[in-house]
Amino acid sequence: MSTEGEIATELVRPPRPAPGSRRHLRLLRGLAWTLLTLVVTFLGLLALTFFIGRVVPIDPVLAVVGDRAPKAVYEAARIRLGLDQPLPIQFLNYIGTILHGDLGMSVSTGRPVIEDLSRYFPATLEMATLGIIVGVVLGVPMGVFAASRQGRWSDQVIRVVGLLGYSVPVFWLGLVGLAVFYARLRWVGGPGRLDIYYDGLVPPVTGLILIDALIAGDMEIFMNAFWHIVLPGSVLGFYSLAYIARMTRSFMLDQLAEEYVTTARVKGVPERLVLWRHAFRPILVPLITVIALSYTGLLEGSVMIETIFSWPGIGNYLTTALLNADMNAVLGATLVIGAVFIFINKLSDLLYRVLDPRARR
Amino acid sequence: MTDLAPRTSRRDWLLDESPSSRLQARLGRLYRLALALLANPLTVIGALIVVLLVLMAIFAPLIATHDPIAQDLSKRLLPPSGENWMGTDELGRDIWSRVVYGAQITLAIVALVAILAAPVGLVVGAVAGYFGGWVDRVLMGLTDIFLSVPKLILALAFVAALGPGIENAIIAVAIATWPSYARIARAETITVRNAEYIVAIELQGASRSRVILRHILPLCLSSMIIRVTLDMAGIILTAAGLGFIGLGAQPPLPEWGAMISRGRAFILDQWWVATMPGFAIVIVSLGFCLLGDGLRDVLDPRHGEQR
């Protein structure tokens, strides 16, 4: 269909480059740049954990040889650990061992830290994912609704709920939830991922019990796992709900003030369509960034919530290690959480650039 | 001869559109700010909560009904009553009195973190923004590294390295907090760096440090105050979290997070032990959030989030 307007723009436009090629090149260059910053940031993260490892008042050599070792043994251990080398060399060695997947041994579990982390990570992933589902499914409609009734009491309620997400300690909410919904009402399961009775009955495939139970076709275990995850997942979900609702509301308010919304309303488009088909579409892209950010926030929340719910995840591992002064485990967990954090942030950056035509230039 | 001119009220003097002295201009500005803040009931509530917190911390010995540390094992785990308003904990200490004294600790943590982190962030951000080039790249790279780990995790790792205790917790939280201030200060600096008045001062021969300290930093202040106020809730939560895990304030200090941690064992039967300090945290954090929101609405009209 060729209308006058289209021909006019065709005339104004500069000659088109070979279709696709230059755009792809630009996207590729963007990708390469993102990868480069990813590597640099990751190196920075390594420098940070290396630095924290050096600040520790615990002498790593003494931890190996014991404090009664003769001087010669001490020196030998020091050289074996590479601690006699200058700091930059030590840092390079550190990077080398990390890249080989060697995060050292955990003093408290007696296993390599990397093995522990890969065992505990799925539990955290499972809970955080449930949290983000709760947050998106409830938070987005709440934000849209609040924006559509700006200033009325329903809007105020949603605003205060949003602020509560910034002011309620997650460990406290978890405790209160446990006391009310588990101890009093018996609506949900208690701490842990499963009742002890079911422990180890499902062959681990993904490490996510809900999915493993489905693969095994065991609905009883699936229901039991769901029974257990629903409370910690909802508590985490509350925080992403608060953040997502708050941001959705503010994005929507920006859109609703635009003239095209007025035009749509004047044309008599039903309000529901104005909200969801007109105003909501453009905020999808920034919302993706918000959702990614709140996912990283959940990683942080899971550290606290896991200690409350005895959830065998990475957060629980981290706090246990902290209390045992198990530095390898602490730094390993910090590194993994930091790496996931960086990765998700970069991914959302990238998505933003791919999805939003204005950011592509 | 009598003065026939009507006596201008204090209000008119403050709201005068053409102030005749610097003092009048300043007071007038403050007055307008206060009026705008008071117009929003939520902001007023927030400000009241913060003021109450400060009063509670100052007059803790007068407000508390018991000694916050004295143990009385014959009175352990009593439910809330006329004698013990919030009940007693597992060592027979009055929880209300402990919550009141806890206000001192919370206020000290918040104030010290702000004093440590805000100036560092301000200077790093302003220097990076003003000089640009490789100075900017190095400083912001450093900032980004700190931002690449979630705040709580970073604070945890530093406390693990420095050792538990409230001083180290404060340092760790400050270390985790300054990078976001640096970002804000840099963004603000970049918007004013090429302004004509800055160029004018430079042409008059002002040194770089003078330009930054006297002419750039003051302009970053309002956005910094907003951000710090909004951050207070996060700082309180992080510090309480450290206390809860057992790496922050150590017993017998009545720190709210540590108190929740002690009450954890009794949450099913003696719910008040863990619940009461939690309410204190929620109320105070909410107060700072509401105040920060209100400040942003008034001081930073560009921001579209809250309308």
Question: Your description of this structure?
Answer:
- The complex is a heterodimer of chains A (361) and B (307).
- Chain A is mainly alpha-helical.
- Chain A contains 14 helices and no strands.
- Chain A has helices spanning 4-12, 21-55, 60-65, 71-80, 87-99, 113-148, 153-167, 170-184, 209-216, 219-256, 259-266, 271-308, 314-323, 327-355.
- The two termini of chain A are 28 Å apart.
- The model of chain B has no long low-confidence stretch (mean pLDDT 85).
- Chain B contains twelve helices and no strands.
- Helices cover 71% and strands 0% of the residues of chain B.
- Chain B has 307 residues and is an all-alpha fold.
- Chain B has helices at residues 10-15, 22-38, 41-58, 60-63, 95-131, 133-147, 151-162, 166-193, 196-203, 208-245, 256-263, 272-299.
- The interface between A and B is large, with 54 and 51 residues.
Search tags:
heterodimer, A: 361 residues, mainly alpha, 0% strand, disordered N terminus, B: mainly alpha, 71% helix
